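QA checklist item 7 of 12: single-chain prediction sanity check.
[x] sequence parsed
[x] length recorded as 132
[x] structure emitted
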Amino acid sequence: MSTASAGAPEGRYGRTSDARADHRLKILGGVLGVLFLGLIGWFGWHYVGQNEISGELIAFQVSDSSVEVHLEVRKDSGTSGYCTVRSQAENGAEVGRADFRFTGSQTRIDKVVTLRTTSRGTTAELLGCHPS
């Protein structure tokens, strides 16, 4: 005795609904993968390509009401921007913070700036440089 099968013979009537759904999921996965890679690429370009100003704190000298800070800034020619510097007291409280602007066609700027403080600071810290 033979047993009758419940489904249609394989390959006789085209794709089944499961095969169509699998094909659609593969296409959707491919599209989403390409979009994800494009998004990662855009974020990478924006982070690396748009970072036009970098700074380095070379030295600082503390007095009772100010801190002299020696900054070295590297930037693209013609780009303007600012660097944020802060000073803290011995107990960790912030006693001064200021933005120092840099403009012009120079690509390397070596400058000593004065940060006024509310009391004697013990540190100078470069928080970052940003294009404006």
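[x] summary fact logged: The mean pLDDT is 86.
[ ] second reviewer sign-off
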